[in-house]
Amino acid sequence: MVAPEDPDEVILRVGKRIGQIRREKGITQRQLGEDLGVAVTWISKIETKGSNLGIKTIVKIANALGVEAKELWESPTT
């Protein structure tokens, strides 16, 4: 049996992973925001404080980053 996860921790982990992948690909927050049609402040919030993202938004972010959505659930590497 898998131990239950804290939803708030998952939200933060996904946000940090989005930021990590974005930086690895050399994409700025501004560029990602423009690709998604959202403000750079929203991207910053996702990466630093987390945001309860819907599945469609997660898929759009993954597509903009050129990765599969499942990669956003992986723990960020240090």
End-to-end CA span: 28 Å
The number of E-state strands comes to: 0
**Which percent range describes the beta-strand content?**
under 5%
Identify the overall geometry. Answer: globular
Task: Work out the radius of gyration.
Answer: 12 Å
Main beta-sheet annotation: none
Helix segment tally: 4
Q: Provide the low-confidence segments as ranges.
A: none
> For the residues shown, what is the average pLDDT?
95
Oligomerization state: single chain
What class would the helix/strand composition place it in? mainly alpha
The H-and-E topology, N to C, reads as HHHH
Instruction: State the helical fraction.
Output: 55-70%
Task: Describe the overall structure.
This protein is an all-alpha fold. It has helices spanning 7-24, 29-36, 40-48, 55-65. It is globular and about 40 Å long.
SSE diagram, text form:
Elements: H1 7-24, H2 29-36, H3 40-48, H4 55-65
Helix pairs in contact: 1-3, 2-3
Primary descriptors:
single chain; 78 residues; mainly alpha; 59% helix
